Amino acid sequence: MKARLLHAALIVAALSSPAGCSRTDLWVVTCSEALTPEGQCVARADPVRGDPVSHTDGAGGADGGGGADGADAAPIGDPGPCIASAGTFLGDNGQKVSIYRYTFQSYVGSSFVANDDAGAICGALVSLTKTGTPSGSLHASIWSDDTSLSPTEPLVQISEESPGVVAASVVDGTDTRFTGLTGATLVSGTKYWLVLRSDAGSENGSNYVNWILRSDVEPFGIVYSSDPGSWWTGYTYGRTSLQLLK
Questions:
Q1: pLDDT at 120
Q2: Domain 85-245 annotated CATH 2.60.120
Q3: What percent of the chain has pLDDT over 90?
Q4: What residue segments make up the domains of the chain, in order of their start?
Q5: Mean pLDDT of 227-233
Q6: Rounded to whole angstroms, what are the CA distances from 194 to 23, 32, 75, 221, 231?
Q7: Is the pTM of the predicted complex or chain greater than 0.85?
Q8: C-alpha gyration radius of the chain
Q9: What residues are paired with 106 via a beta bridge?
């Protein structure tokens, strides 16, 4: 097309192009180094910030948060989807329940009632700590509540399960972010469960992840299981620390 053709004078200009421009730069008009309509060489796009002139996206900074490439001239990159929080983050009172592939702890679920959390959910922030060097990855999903039981327990998974988060990457004091919990639209005032699953092999009891308890006196519930078909209600009064993302 006409916009891609170079005038003969510009081809000759390659022999005396501005500093930083090679002859190849003059021909590659669709890449990060390109010619302006006036024939000037556009500076190479910053690999992080991108280049708003040549419309080249950067890679995004370390705090980009899971997007693809960074937006033009965005030093911390595209924050990506699933960043708005729903509801109130539940604090840490120092107690914990373990999550690891050992006895009955492969699955751990914590109930919550949707209020500010109502609507379409995409992820969750979960307060975790680790002991030793746990193996495998953790996965999160949202389940409906079995109202026919007392105390109740998870009934069926209603969201997609998140991609795995490497258990050994859990950092104390930094809430672990799970995304990909799509497909669930929560109704205000309805009870649900956030379930974490460990896909690790059998542990020796010295390497595992802990889900921090918010309280041991609230009438919600924490359940655990070696498989999702048989839940144990060892923490009938309690709630783990979590916050849902939209």
A1: 94
A2: yes
A3: 33
A4: 85-245
A5: 84
A6: 58, 44, 34, 11, 14
A7: no
A8: 26
A9: none
